[in-house]
Design goal:
By secondary structure, the protein is α/β, with parallel strands linked by helices. About 45% of the residues lie in helices and about 15% in strands. It folds into two domains: about 190 residues, P-loop containing nucleotide triphosphate hydrolases (Rossmann fold), CATH 3.40.50.300; about 100 residues, Magnesium chelatase subunit I, C-Terminal domain (Helicase, Ruva Protein, domain 3).
Length: about 325
């Protein structure tokens, strides 16, 4: 059986690989425990690829990085049929999507057809190729990156695909102390002084066992109602605060409530508890809602951001009393 201690050991290993970025490591653990896909947004050079690769190695999962480019074709991702010269029959050659953990690098550079193929994989854990539906691994997980600084040659992700990501994480540059530690660790690795002897006790099967444990977390009716109240509040902001009447064009869908439930359960499980509290819900809310609400032009002009709106929701929606 999987335990929190094994996942804590995995996190400690990730901390030896990645300096700082505490939120990234915590939320990657949540994604691993729920099977929810993650969109990572931040400038280049923040060790996103290194973190995802270390996560895959930590659970002995098959890892594949896919560099998305404007000339990428769906077959380059999901695979295609080729003619077998010996038998004369068509043979399917799986693409890189057939791995446990996928790093979709610069996903917004992919053309719409590729994004559509990826959407089926993310939503159904299967792909359709050569007229057949083919299942992906049970532990299939997509961690996608996009660069917010460079927009030339990009294709904005459609709302339907954004909604398939359970979490949207914003990464920022490390502070001076963390960056100094990065330099020191790099020198140690260069001279062979920093040897990683970590031996993971986790396997993909144990990850699936842990996901089952997370799904059995106790969530009281008041906490369930709190989750739904926070999400549905995005569709009726004007009722809670008349000054926010025109702030959002589109609120979050019921899929946001499901994502919030799963993420909160995983957060509580990692904390060693078998029940979810309002604090767990508030902790996960920004990453669950950030990409699911669409601000109006007037909101941007007035200085609103998605995170400011989410913080305001936390202030406006009553916190339930729990035992």
């Amino acid at each position: 059986m999987s335990s929190q201690l094994e996942f804590q050991a995995l996190k400690e290993h990730l901390q030896t690989v990645i300096v700082g970025q505490e939120a990234l490591l915590d939320k990657m653990m949540v994604a691993l425990l729920t099977g929810g896909h993650v969109l990572l947004e931040g400038p280049p050079g923040l060790a996103k690829t290194t973190a995802v690769k270390a996560l895959a190695q930590g659970v002995h999962a098959a890892f594949q990085r896919i560099q998305f480019t404007p000339d990428l074709m769906p077959g380059d991702v999901i695979g295609s049929e080729i003619l077998d010269k010996e038998s004369g029959a068509l043979r399917f050659v799986p693409g890189p999507i057939f791995h446990d953990i996928i790093l979709a690098d610069e996903i917004n550079r992919a053309p719409p057809k590729v994004q559509s193929a990826l959407l089926e994989a993310m939503a159904e854990k299967q792909v359709t190729a050569g007229g057949k539906t083919r299942a992906l691994p049970e532990t299939f997980l997509v961690l996608a990156t996009q660069n917010p600084l460079e927009q030339n040659g990009t294709y904005p992700l459609p709302e339907a695909q954004l909604d398939r990501f359970m979490l949207h994480l914003l990464l920022d540059y490390p502070d001076q102390e963390d960056e100094l530690e990065i330099l020191r660790r790099d020198r140690k690795r260069h001279f062979g002084e920093d040897q990683d002897n970590y031996q993971s006790a986790l396997t993909p099967q144990q990850v699936m066992q842990a996901r089952h444990q997370v799904s059995e977390q106790y969530v009281s009716e008041p906490v369930e109602a709190y989750m739904v109240a926070l999400v549905t509040a995005t569709r009726r902001l004007g009722e809670l605060d008349p000054e926010m009447e025109e702030v959002l064009k589109i609120g979050a869908s019921p899929r946001a409530s499901l994502a919030l439930l799963h993420a909160s359960c995983a957060w509580a499980w990692l904390d060693g508890r078998d029940f979810v509290t309002p604090d767990d819900v508030q902790q996960m809310l920004p990453d669950v809602l950030r990409h699911r609400i669409i601000l109006s032009f007037g909101a941007y002009a007035s200085g609103w951001s998605a995170d400011k709106i989410i913080q305001r929701l936390i202030e406006l929606v009553a916190i339930p009393e729990t035992d």
